[in-house]
Amino acid sequence: MTSISATEQNDEEYSFVYGDEAVTYGVVRKSVVEGKKRKIAIKVHPSCEVVVNAPDDAERSEVHEAIMKRAKWICEALQEFRTQQAYVQSKHYVSGEVQFYLGRRYVLKVVEDEAAVPMVKMQRGKLLVTLKRFDERKGGYTKVMVRQWYHLRAERVFHERLAALLPKATWVKGIPSFRVLPMSKQWGSCSAKGSLMLNPHLIKAPKECIDYVILHELCHIAEYNHSERFWRLLSSVMPQWQDVKSRLDGMAELYLNE
Q: Which Pfam family, an example, fits this chain (predicted)?
C-alpha cells in the first residue's frame, strides 16, 4: 500500500524550540535487527507532522540530540510545506483555476456553446471545458466532467505504464488486474490475490511518480508487508524511489485538492 500521508503510530511525543518556534515531534520506537546499523531517522511529512524513528533502546536525550542537530532543516521543511498549504484552496471550477496532468499545470477554461457537445479537452496549455449553457449549476457540471475526464485518462495511462513496467517485475506471473478508485489516504493498494487499485488523482503526477506507485504495489505481490525484503525488491527495480516518493509527497495536497 502506498500511503498519501503519515501512518506511523507515535509512541511518545515531545517538543523542541528553535528560534521563535516550538515544534512538536512524535517518536516511533523500532526494534533493531541484528547486524543492521543502529540509527535515528527524522521525517517531516507534508501534513507538517514530524516523526522520529528511533531504536527501542535509544535514550530520550539521544533522540533530542539528533533532533537539535537537524533543527534548522526541520523548520525549513515545515515552512516549505506550510507555504504549499497556503496556496491550496478549494476549487470552484471556474476559468483561471489550475489543474494538473502528468506533472504539468493547465489553466482551466470554461466556455459556453449551445451548439457544441459538452466535452473536456487539453488545448494549448489549457484544460478546456465546454458547456451548452451557463447557469447556477455550472460549477457542479464542470467538476463532474473534469473528474470523469481524469478517470478516463487515468485508466488509459495506468494501463500503459503497467504494461511498460511488468518486464521489470519478473516475479509477477501474467497481467495483474487493476481498477481506478478514488481514495483519500492511499495512492494505491494491492489485494492478497494480487489485484491492484490505483487512485485517479495520481494521473496529475509526473509519470515517474505513477511508475513508483505501480512498482510499489507490484512488489507487494511478492512481499505483502513492508519488510526488509520488500524495500530491497523495490530498490532493485527503482533505485531512486525515495526521491520520487518525496516529490510525490510534496505535491500531494495540490494533486488531491478538488
A: YgjP-like
